[in-house]
Amino acid sequence: MQNRTMTSRRFTRIAARRSGRLAIGLLWSAASVALMAGCSSYWGASGDTFVEYSGIDQGKVQACANFSADPEHRNGPGMSLYIVVADIEVVSPIDGAWEISGTTKIVDEGGGDPEYLAWSCRVTIDADARSMHAELVDTGPGQEVPLCGPSCSAPSRDSIEIESDNTYDPDSWLPCIDIVAAVVSPPEQTGPPRVTVRSDHDAPSRRFHGTFEPPSQAAYQWTCQLPKAYDPWSLDYELTALEPQ
Description:
There is one protein chain. The protein has 245 residues and is mostly beta strands. The protein has one domain. A hairpin with a 5-residue loop joins strand 7 and strand 8.
């Protein structure tokens, strides 16, 4: 883990914009899509974090975006009106790890100037151990970036079809889906898998259950968990069960 004093260093890498991005929040439900359709792209966010990214690495990106939105990494002490994570670049995998970078825009409810954080993150999936490790590598002052807002509402060709009873907390369970995909999805698969997610609110750690159905294949049942205590620098996810349905 990197030394936490690195937050004061100026971060110079500016992530290249990716086409076909999608605000993950827009996939959750029709209600969330409606919230995004006002005069301002994020007028109804009420403190939520929106991630403008579409594609097969949504879980990895979400884990990194969640770090960037943590109050520990901000300059402003106030509550946020909304947070948008954009200009995301995913470099897949180098030495078995994905290098992810982006810029997070934080809008303060007090009406001051937005704060921009540029960050980089490293995500490693061990398919044999059925685990994911996500670590924030660097973060610092960023520059203003364009946002796609409502234009992100159309799912991309690679978007995962998700049905969940926990529609407003994807940062906790999306990484689990990436682990399942790494274990059971063949490289030649075409089309997005279909996924269901259920939360286990009584578990001592954050635990989720669901099904994962690759195109033209039998479905799997899975259980995934992560530590209850949130670390704004590093998280580990683990599949504790995975078997054919």
